[in-house]
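Notebook B, p. 112. Complex prediction, attempt 2.
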Amino acid sequence: MAVPKKRTGKSAQAKRRANWKATKPEVVTCPNCGEFALAHTVCTACGYYKGKPVSIKDAPTVEEVIEEKKPAKKSTKKAAKTEEKAVEDVKAVEEVKEEKAEKSAKETKEEVAQEKKPAKKSTKKATKSEEKAE
Ligand SMILES: [Zn+2]
């Protein structure tokens, strides 16, 4: 393994690194749409290369349309089932929420009652203590 004979100083390091420069990418205006595109590459805006459509984004090819339709048929049945399940789940969740709401309302009432009771006790004690003090 090659080992450097001497340590490179800061000066030499900085001088070497001073020559590092960023290269500007070769940009060309697309002859089809006029957008800026990298040279020797397909235009990202319109998908044309050398005046021919290579990859058109907006208009899908016939194969893509067929491929898109096939899973759609399968997914419709599943989607319908899942939608039904989702609706049932939502209903169940709503029921649970209502129950929880009722429970929470009861709990809050109980809590309020509990909060009132010790307050009463404390008032009684306070009154007793006040009586004793008198
Ligand atoms: Zn273009």
